[in-house]
Amino acid sequence: MPRPPHRSFSCGTPSDRFIVNDKWGYGARISPRSYDIMPDPEDLLAHCRDNAHRETGLMLSRLTALLSSQSFLLIAYATSMASAHGRWHEPFTLAIPPVLALLGIALAIEGRRGIKAAAAASCRWQERGDHVITEHPHLLHWPDISRSEASAARRAGEQFPLHAPGIFLVAWGWFACLPPALFLAHI
To answer: Which residues cross the membrane (predicted)?
Structure first.
């Protein structure tokens, strides 16, 4: 089947354009100020919500991967510290646990970047959907919930995924300092 011609709309400035999939799935550039080009605002709202949902799912899958990797590292760290119990002066105590702690720090930093990027993308799509609702208030199916309350609840729900990597950074920093402190205490 031949590919249909690509529809491209260029309205607004380049900084406020975003991609909206057209009926063929190839995407078109639409400005947030020119929703009247789209024949159906429900489709645009559905698109914004689908992308926000996809980005939130990506953020949560990255958080799950971070939690899984941190749990395995913590098990390895605890095992290495338990095997060195009472022998804090040996080189094994100074080599393996701090290396695992540094790996945990590196993973927390990288995980935070990915989680933060996905959260920002989800927030942008939510804002675009809010703009569509502002332009077309009939799309708000449950007007008893104000958009400010929904936005506050959404921000509160994003706090754990954004703060979890920082908590891991603090914990791994403490874990990295523990073996040298135990070594110095038992010299």
So the answer is: 59-79, 91-109, 164-185
